Amino acid sequence: GYHGEGFGAILLFAACHLPDSSIPRYGYVMENLLRYIVGTLERTVADRYVLVCLSGAAARGQIPSFSWMKRCYQAMDRRLRKSLQAVIIVHPTWYVKALVTLSRPFLSPTFSGKVRFAASLRELSRLGPVEPAHVPEPV
Predict the structure, then answer these.
(1) Which pLDDT band holds residue 69 (cuts at 50, 70, 90)?
(2) Could you tell me which SUPFAM superfamilies the record lists for this protein (predicted)?
(3) H-helix or E-strand containing 12?
């Protein structure tokens, strides 16, 4: 969705809809998903945007690896990286929090400062306007 109060585009990414890492050819599927995400961002985002990652209702096998997330960020051109205002992770598990915390020294300070956690959808609504209708039912 789009919002006029300085947010620009708000993109929701629901981990509960990702494939489980145990499926055959998981690497191939995730590589094509990476290309799809980056291609969609390039076509969709014209200005500033916020990425909201809904990790609720996702099994551990559905949470992408750190290396995959890093490749996603590196695959974006400079314009997309600069336009990213925040990455909000909703319902983060201890695993996701630990992964982000341990990876901070390896990330740029600019990007690290953009990562935020929201423990609930109510907390997310305080950080930015997200339509409840756009949140998948399992979350």
Answers:
(1) confident
(2) CRAL/TRIO domain
(3) strand 8-14
Q: Is residue 132 part of a domain?
A: no
Contact 76, 38 (CB under 8 A): yes
Radius of gyration of the chain (CA): 14
Count of domains for the chain: 1
**Cβ distance 90 to 62 under 8 Å?**
no
Contact 10, 2 (CB under 8 A): yes
Q: Indicate the Cα dihedral angle 24, 42, 130, 32, nearest 10°.
A: 0
CA atoms within 13 A on the CB side of 134: 13
Cβ-based neighbour number of residue 104 at 10 Å: 13
Q: How confident is the model at residue 20 (pLDDT cuts 50, 70, 90)?
A: very high
* CATH code, domain with 86: 3.40.525.10
